[in-house]
């Protein structure tokens, strides 16, 4: 019975975390004006 109670508690905590993150929403800062570096830069010429 204890493993079932622990699983239910863990599931409830996970659902609460997801609902909290959904309620807060995405960050409002926007995006960075500089692009991310996606490749390793080559030697400078």
TrEMBL record:
Superkingdom, natural source: Bacteria
Record keywords: Signal
The keyword Signal belongs to this UniProt entry's keyword annotation: yes
Signal peptide: 1-23
Region Disordered, residue ranges: 24-45
Listed InterPro entries: SPW_0924-like (IPR048001)
Keyword Signal: yes
Family annotation (NCBIfam families): small_SPW0924
Protein name: SPW_0924 family protein
Native source organism of the sequence: Streptomyces clavuligerus
């Amino acid at each position: 019975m204890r493993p079932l109670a622990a699983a239910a508690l863990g599931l409830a905590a996970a659902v609460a975390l997801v609902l909290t993150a959904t309620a807060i929403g995405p960050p409002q800062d926007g995006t960075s004006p500089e692009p991310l570096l996606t490749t390793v830069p080559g030697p400078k010429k």
